[in-house]
Amino acid sequence: MGYERAADGNYYPKGTKPAHTLTRAEARDPATYRAAKEAAAKIGATLEIVDPGKADDTHRRGRGDVAATTTTTTIIKDEDQRVAYMRRDVMGSDPRQYQRLRAEGMTIKSWDQPDDLPQNMQTKLALMEKSHDA
Length: 134
Fold this sequence. Notes:
three-stranded mixed β-sheet, 19% strand, elongated
């Protein structure tokens, strides 16, 4: 029908964008950003920052993408860098474990899929998973 759904949940003709959106470049100008934010607030809309050069914004994934069904390992520690990689679903369900790691002086980073981890941590994860299977 020539319409596509925008991030705000409404349908717009293909090739157009909702009235209250700014590109990242436009949003960097404080005056432009402030005016757009006020205009959106007047009608009760939310100002959306878009990146026209990027087809799909995939920096955030839903919880359905978490590797909980494929991995038993929930935390991988990089002692040298003082970083603990904690599976995202565990981060929300076990705050005490998160707090314990922070108390140990670890920086916590979340991961959903093994590909989200640095290469050395992917190798460590594979070895940990292998030891779980033994």
